[in-house]
Amino acid sequence: MEDYQGLTGRQAEKLLAEHGENxxxxxxxxxxxxxxxxxxxxAMIMILLAATVVSALMGEYTEALTIVAIVFINALLGFFQxxxxxxxxxxxxxxxxxxxxxxxDGQARSIPASEVVPQDIFCLKAGDRVPADGCxxxxxxxxxxxxxxxxxxxxxxxxxxxDPAAPxxxxxxxxxxxxxxxxxxxxxxxxxxxxxxxxxxDMLGGIEAQPTPLQKRLAQMGKVIGVxxxxxxxxxxxxxxxxxEDPFNMLLTGISLAVAAIPEGLPAVVTIALALSVGRMVKRxxxxxxxxxxxxxxxxxxxxSDKTGTLTENRMTxxxxxxxxxxxxxxxxxxxxxxxxxxxxxxxxxxDFPSAAMLLDVALLCNNASVTPKREGLRGLVGLSRxxxxxxxxxxxxxxxxxxxxxxxxxRESRPYEVxxxxxxxxxxxxxxxxxxxxxxxxxxxxxxxxxxxxKRCTRCATKSGIVPLTPELRRQIAAQNEAMAGRALRVxxxxxxxxxxxxxxxxxxxxxTGLAGMLDPPRKEAxxxxxxxxxxxxxxxxxxxxxxxxxxxxxxELSIYQPGDRVxxxxxxxxxxxEALAREIKRISVFARVTPAHKLRIVRALKKQGNxxxxxxxxxxxxxAVKEADIGVSMGVTGTDVTKEASSVILMDxxxxxxxxxxxxxxxxxxxxxxxxxxxxxxxxxxxxxxxxAMLMGMPVPLLxxxxxxxxxxxxxxxxxxxxxxxPDKDVMREKPRRADESVFSNGLGFTIVIRGLLIGICTLGVxxxxxxxxxxxxxxxxxxxxxxxxxxxxxxxxxxxETKSIFAINPFNxxxxxxxxxxxxxxxxxxxxxxxxxxxxxxxxxxxxQLVTVASYCIFVPIVSGVILGVKNRTARxxxxxxxxxxxxx
Length: 892
What we know:
Elements: H1 9-19, H2 32-38, H3 43-57, H4 61-82, H5 88-94, E1 99-104, E2 107-112, E3 121-125, E4 133-145, H6 147-150, E5 156-158, E6 172-173, E7 178-190, H7 196-205, H8 213-242, H9 247-261, H10 266-283, E8 286-288, H11 293-298, E9 302-305, H12 307-311, E10 317-322, E11 327-330, E12 341-343, E13 346-348, H13 354-365, E14 370-373, E15 390-393, H14 396-407, E16 417-426, E17 431-438, E18 443-449, H15 451-456, E19 458-463, E20 466-469, H16 472-487, E21 491-500, E22 511-520, H17 525-536, E23 540-544, H18 549-558, E24 567-570, H19 571-575, H20 579-585, E25 589-593, H21 597-609, E26 614-618, H22 624-629, E27 632-636, H23 642-647, E28 650-652, H24 657-697, H25 706-716, H26 718-724, H27 750-776, H28 779-800, H29 817-835, H30 850-891
Parallel strand pairs: 9-23, 9-26, 19-22, 23-25, 24-25, 26-27, 27-28
Antiparallel strand pairs: 1-2, 1-3, 3-7, 4-5, 4-6, 4-7, 8-28, 10-11, 10-22, 11-12, 12-13, 14-15, 16-17, 17-18, 18-21, 19-20, 21-22
Helix pairs in contact: 2-4, 3-4, 3-8, 4-10, 8-9, 9-24, 10-24, 10-26, 13-14, 17-24, 24-26, 24-27, 24-28, 25-28, 26-29, 27-28, 27-30, 28-29, 28-30
């Protein structure tokens, strides 16, 4: 430390003024008012606001106030879900180290990390978070966890730069990363927005949120409704004027009819249904940050998943131990000590093999990590216990070795050795050694390191026959074993020892080779089934990782993400590909390895350009730009950084890939349910328009008053439509291919069904109105009968909307009790609107006699019968078409 004077206080002040504070730029934040105002941009909302103005001008203040209330409640629901959407850059700053130890005026001092400036000398030790990008000037045994930037699970070796003016990548540390081992003196090379993390922040700031497929469909629907309203208004007005009616009165009538055509409840029903779906998904472990993200999940056909921590456990695990005599497979994953050692599929005790037993001792003692059983009952019995989860502390590779030993029932405290000295790991030697003294007084040098380097230091090897010279043939055998383990994507370490004469006998020569240990970051157990479900649902999984290509391919192949014929492309190869070449090849690429944040962003954009609906999962800062760019961004709730969580639309609270599959299923269910209540609402509104339009064309009085139409649209349409959004999932929902992003909400004949059903409702309502006005001659009674008939036919129709292929006589009406309750509630509302002395005058209704009720009921029963016949003909036609197509295919 005394060799470094650092900056003077004056120099630091000047550089701070020049470069600014060491913070990530927050960028432009969307204020509360702007987010709230954004809720009113939807075309449907604008039409409703226009309808409010028209209603007020016509003196229908109750109707105007009700529409305003609906619009406001809808805006509030959207606002509260999206309020925290643009807080990503603020969270980036929180990942920076809050304090840093720097050298100023020749003295070490602790300052806020925000005050670190370029050229500052700062100090790092194990456990510190790096305050700025910098070059290592001195120190040793440095390992950094850079997974948040690179996605690579293994610690990255660092060393002092031979020439600080031209440092290599191994001489650099990066802001926000974690030092897991060693000490270092560094010179800051970049701060704030100029750091690697700052560049990621810039990428995030340049990505604009895109509307979801449902939002696009609803926006188009709003425009269509707007045009339709103008057409209806014009046709009615012109028709009345040609008949000799007062032009002004006919214009007002046309506007009133156009307002009736607007499904006032649709925006609120969609928002409420999505919000209720969000509640269900929270129970399944997925937190939805943006309402419309639920629906987008349902049409995702590509899931780009990070490997480390998402598909894998993000913890190294020893999978095999190889000596010259045997290869022991090690079961169990994570920090569980419940695994076992097997030889040719048979469980064995590794201590029964002298070479393996010695390897375990070296792994235990030549190690700076530590483990502690989590269960209190195991404490104090660590030397005897086996089983249960362990708390691990230290570098992941070393922790994995201790967990391996625990699976054999061995802990450092139980072994008859005492560590007397250490030769730390460094990147030049690629080894670490310790001097230990056994209880009998004998001393040993235990060494672990890179197999090829370690083997050169060995002159003998341990076998079941004893210690024998390490002949060229045995060296070739060890090299072949090392290559075989590396081919399985295992990270391999070698172990050796020799007897030492004293604590100062530290020469790493003349060693006795004991064997190899291979480890990897294993796939999550639940990821296997999740990937299989994705493929069954027609969703293509793609792995995008910063890890080695061999490792990535092995994990992807094990999970069936990589399949025969697929390609594995590295970041270097990606740099050499044009956008056109990437677009041609991307359908065959299932694994991207050694990629940077910019690569991930390019991959997601290439997939989207091909027309895919892309979901991107991730946990590290490096994933945030791609997560935000994707149609649906998914972050990990436990291991995910705040940056990625804020950039995402969905957070998996249990980091479980299977939870994502459940979220996709929920997305498909909610879309089906949205189609159900869109069918319901539009059929009902068409029925209202047909009723009034035909009556006007026939020169009859207006069948329904504006306040009565509002009662139908809000009190009776709203509750059943929301209940339709809670329909249980159909059994085949995850066996269908994802729908296209540009697929119309009215696809697969839904538009035809809506029009036919609307016509039936309208004609029968008009029939009730005509029958009653002829039988009793009272306009109020006829309007009340038309109102009741319209509502009852809608409440019957809501059960038809439960299925697009089954009639009301073939569905189970009681599998959604909330829908039954909503229908009963609507029926009660109608009863009070007609028979309550206080409410009836407000809605211009009068009580109906028994004979008049029979007239209403006869028309209501007629509609579902005719509708069922039409559906049966439609289904038979569809089956005949499919059969004909199959016959033609067979003939070919």
